[in-house]
Design a protein that fits this description.
By secondary structure, this protein is α+β, with helices and mostly antiparallel strands. The protein is built from 26 helices and 17 strands. Strand 1 and strand 2 form a beta hairpin. The longest helix has 19 residues.
Length: 608
């Protein structure tokens, strides 16, 4: 397609594109200055006036003088090289060979470098600016064409991701529309049915898919990072992560503290009402405790980088650990807690991803695992160009990303996902080295792990363990009997807790308000199960003691079967029924069957 034909087709279109940071020139009457002003309008999303469009048409018709035309028969015009470069760039734009981000930069450079253009250069610069109008697409129109061509009303999540990525590659960014929603789209995802997502402009003026508090991973390389910047990013991560330790107790206590303070002015406030209005400051929690979870570290790291103008993403990763499985006691291999994973949009673990282009123009990706593991060889992974694959290709291969459908979620509303994680917080702990201080909601106690407690003197013990029951701590000033260094002592439960916190404080950060927050946890533990925790946590709690007894009995029977004390067929029969009970906890529609199934199995185990 020639530039002239393209101009005739597109120059009358209105511009609604948005720009990267603007550049300014003194207002003059010269043609090149007017072209700069018009390009700024295109970048800033301003609709071109009739006068602007007419000017582009007239400027594109500029011709050399008679003397210049005669001279061109004798020798190559001095502007020939420049004209060819401008023409080549315009063709790249028209043929969509040039992504939108470098497009803006390249056009700016041409306008800046041609401050005293010839008539031919002016004409081609006008056509160059006009060519940018061809990259001002309408996403709703793109979506409708996709539906018509595919004969479908509802795209899949992956198809919509691919459409948005392609649109962002071709269309000019619209920074002035940052935060603006342009449409809602129904998508279908395997196993999750149909739901609506929002399409809006992000802060850079590109489209993004908003799926509640999350959005799909954005694989783009619009930022350039020098080698020194890459080193500084890694150094910052080490500064934040190396001295931090795992702590998911702080998140819980911040919510409880919020509830306590809110209830002072509203005595009838429920936990559920407080939860609805709560929106945690994750960076603030990390700073307060100097420790946290993957999502706290990821948020602290990402927001620190964003203040430096470096773009990163906090990305979900499915994993297999005690938090992603159903907390059924005495089970060797508990089922995946799929419903909770859906509740938190797949954020069983949070990584930080940084996509960039290096100084050589090669694309790269950094992955920070936010694991709190010491000497983890994969804590920081750099996916850079190798002999066989590019950095992104290696990243996609390792992460098993084969297309848009496989893209994990990234955080948009950090606080909303962090809050949702509290719905499955059956245990909350602070862990440093081999020291554990925590809460177990299913057992209903506050505790210190026995191996650490054995190294300290002066701790209040019950049955040889540091354990304060919620039932006792709910009446903090009531007196109880504790063993302290082998001697029985009468202590209020508040005093016992205070002694424990003082011991923990010598190793980990304990805020001043933790004592009152822990007491509030004990006093509201039943309400947490009724109003905040999702199923099957309340169901597991209701049958916890029975599940412990059955689980222990099944382990004994397994040993007996291996020793041939009982027939292996009998053990397998009972184990099958036990597995059926475990599986019932994974099926919300079967919760009402759990109680009867437990009673039936207990009856069969009585005589064994």
């Amino acid at each position: 397609m020639s530039i002239e034909n393209s101009l005739n087709e597109f120059v009358d279109q209105s511009a609604s594109s948005i720009a990267l940071p603007s550049f300014r020139f003194q207002t003059e009457t010269r043609t090149v200055d007017r072209l700069v002003q018009i390009f700024q309008k295109i970048r800033d999303g301003v609709v071109l006036s009739i006068g602007d469009r007419d000017f582009l048409i007239e400027a594109s018709k500029f011709r050399p003088s008679i003397r210049e035309r005669l001279s061109s028969w004798i020798s190559t015009p001095t502007d020939e090289g420049s004209v060819r470069e401008i023409n080549a760039l315009a063709l790249q734009i028209l043929q969509k060979e040039l992504p939108s981000a470098p497009l803006v930069t390249r056009v700016e450079e041409k306008l800046v470098s041609n401050r005293n253009p010839s008539a031919r250069e002016t004409a081609y610069l006008a056509r160059l600016v006009s060519s940018c109008l061809t990259r001002d697409s309408s996403f709703p129109e793109v979506l409708e064409r996709f539906k018509e061509q595919g004969g479908k009303d509802t795209p899949t999540r992956g198809e919509l991701i691919d459409l948005v990525m392609q649109f962002n590659r071709e269309a000019l960014p619209k920074i002035s529309l940052a935060g603006s929603s342009i449409c809602r789209v129904s998508i279908i995802q395997e196993g999750k049915g149909i739901r609506d997502v929002e399409i809006r402009y992000n802060q850079e003026g590109y489209l993004e898919i908003i799926d509640g508090p999350v959005s799909p991973l954005d694989i783009s390389y619009r930022q350039t990072l020098t080698a020194s910047q890459q080193e500084e990013i890694c150094a910052l991560y080490h500064t934040l992560a190396d001295g931090a330790y795992y702590n998911n107790l702080g998140e819980l206590l911040e919510f409880i503290g919020y509830f306590r303070q809110a209830r002072e002015g509203h005595p009838g406030l429920t936990l559920q009402a407080a939860y609805a209005s709560y929106h945690p400051n994750l960076e603030g929690i990390f700073d307060k405790y100097q420790s946290g979870t993957c999502i706290l570290l990821a948020t602290k790291f990402s927001q620190s980088l964003e203040r430096q103008g470096i773009q990163v993403q906090c990305v979900a990763r499915l994993t297999s650990n005690s938090w992603s499985k159903l907390p059924i006691p005495e089970v060797e291999e508990s089922p995946k807690w799929s419903f909770f994973s859906e509740e938190i949009k797949g954020f069983e673990h949070t990584d930080v991803i940084c996509c960039f282009t290096d100084e050589n123009g090669d694309k790269g990706i950094f992955k920070f695992q936010c694991s709190f593991e010491k000497n983890n060889p994969k804590e920081i992974q750099k996916f850079l160009r190798g002999r066989i694959r590019s950095g992104p290709e290696t990243f996609f291969l390792e992460e098993q990303i084969h297309g848009g459908e496989d893209y994990p979620n990234r955080l948009v509303d950090h606080g909303e996902i962090a809050k949702a994680r509290l719905k499955g917080r059956f245990k909350a702990v602070m862990m440093k080295d081999k020291m554990i201080f925590g809460i177990d909601f299913l057992k209903g106690n506050i505790y210190i792990n026995s191996s650490w407690a054995a190294t300290m003197e002066g701790l209040p013990l019950r049955l040889g363990k540091v354990s304060i029951d919620f039932e006792d701590l709910a009446n903090p000033d009531a007196i109880g009997t504790y063993q302290v260094d082998g001697v029985e002592r009468e202590l209020s439960h508040r005093e016992a807790l205070r002694i424990v916190l003082d011991k923990v404080r010598s190793h980990m950060i304990i805020p001043e308000n933790m004592e009152e927050d822990l007491i509030a946890v004990a006093q509201n533990s039943a309400a947490l199960f009724e109003e905040i925790f999702i199923q099957p946590l309340p169901m597991i709690k209701a049958h916890y003691d029975d599940l412990v007894v059955i689980g222990q009995k099944m382990k004994t029977l397994k040993t007996m079967a291996e020793d041939k004390t009982i027939p292996i067929t009998r053990y397998k029969e009972l184990d099958g029924r036990y597995c059926d009970i475990i599986n019932l906890f994974s099926k919300p529609s079967s919760y009402q069957e759990i109680g009867a199934a437990i009673l039936a199995l207990q009856g069969q185990l009585v005589d064994l």
